[in-house]
Amino acid sequence: MQSVVLVVLGIAGMAFGWFVYSRFIAERIYRLDPNFVTPAHAFNDGKDYVPTHRVVLWGHHFTSVAGAAPIVGPAIAVYWGWAPALAWVVLGTIFFAGVHDFGALWASNRHQGKSIGALSESVIGKRSRALYMIVVFLLLLMVNAVFGVVIANAFVNTPGAVFPAWAAIAVALVVGQLVHRRMNLVVLGVVGVAVLYWTMWAGSAMPLALPTEMFGLTPQANWILILFVYAAIASMLPVWMLLQPRDFINGMQLVVGLALLYGAVILVMPDLSAPAFNNRVGESAPSIIPLLFVTIACGAISGFHGIVASGTSAKQLDKETDARFVGYLGAIGEGSLALITIVAVSGVALAPTPEAWHAIYDEFGSAGAGAFISGGARLIEQGWGIPGLVAQTILATMVVLFAGTTMDSGVRLQRYIIQEWGEIYRLPWLRNGVAATLIAVASCLLLAFGAGGASGSGGMMLWPLFGSTNQILAGMTLLVITVMLLKLGRAVRYTLLPMIFVIAMSFAAACVTLVQFWREGNWLLVTLDFVVLATSVLVMLEAASAVQRFRRQESNLAVRIE
Where does the pLDDT of residue 398 fall: very low under 50, low under 70, confident under 90, or very high at 90 and above? Predict the structure, then answer.
């Protein structure tokens, strides 16, 4: 089969999601109001709450939630075959991710731009807020610590990506100033992306690397420290100065990158070397059910998206009607990246024969982002004639820039969570932005170097928990949205059914990993896995109690009216 068939099926499904399903959800379920005063206007402070053009905000939202996950997850999941990975990415994007991301943005917009954890108090109850925010903080801790390692490793292994990755910050600062002065967005986007791609070409010809030892630390450890210093500074700057323009330019360069990849598929029409269903799955490999649904998170549905939507994006929403464009179309962008990843790692560009493909995917987890970069670079080279080294630098930089924007937003979100704790528990010093940022960064570095030693890779210790924790959080977010819809007297099945499925799969996956951690004697992961499971069960019980209270109130009101 030719890979173009996968592209046509995937794009057709996502087009239906955008033009038909998302419009139905916007008009009939969430009922967006163009006259609603958004938090960005109500609390405009020029720093965190800033009304933003929907295209710029889409760029921020999309690149913040993308990271490397919609590449790594599908690239690993293809081990079970391209058919199940394709089905989950397409259906997950349409009926799960779009509704989830869009819903979290809408719900936060209706609750003063609060994070999904903080607003759960208004929807479910006070105890749910405290429980919910524990899971959110733990997930952000994982994401920030791990993405620091991912970017550091990419800088060490692909020194050509160093120059464009840091040059993107300078480009973003200039673009941010010009956007703030109301200059033409299209012109800025074109020029900014052109400069960014020039830096990628320059980076491939001018690789940069740190000394093999500096301050007694390895290059990887030094990069991690540098990245967290940068993330701390970036998280305290006004969003219009760096976060928005950096994410906007990254979003535009991803559109160009996707055009190169999808265009190459159409030009070359390569065959697939991977099987639709892998019949050579090893005995030690995890079962496709439920692990497929937590291995592919971003690109199908991800709890982290709800944190971003309700943490930073809701504070920048100019009009409530922009929520569909930012939230649902952001999920479509994630899905399109996951789709082309499946194509890149399943075709002859990566492995010319089925046997060669099986040699790369000889066991679960043996291939990931590296397979995407290799397969995608060859695909671009074959389709467009771009030299392989330049194509590889383009894709490696794409991965680094996405991971970087996620890390930027992740540290800012941790700051928000800590400041919300300061408000909830009346601790004025925690509400201070500088103090909250320092605590956020210190917690990440403590995990990185406290658990990982001089290498700074301690975040990887918690990474096995990410898949199930992330998806449990997605289920909890859908739970909050469902209860909110129920109280508003609207149809709940469009969020309730995805919620049940996601929670069932993620709970099963968490139980599978809990048994595995127990057998390995990894008591830290056993404890944290159990905490996540117990916390989510308590939130669901609180939600059930809230629903019962609401129905009793309705019943009593009906009796009084009669």
Answer: confident
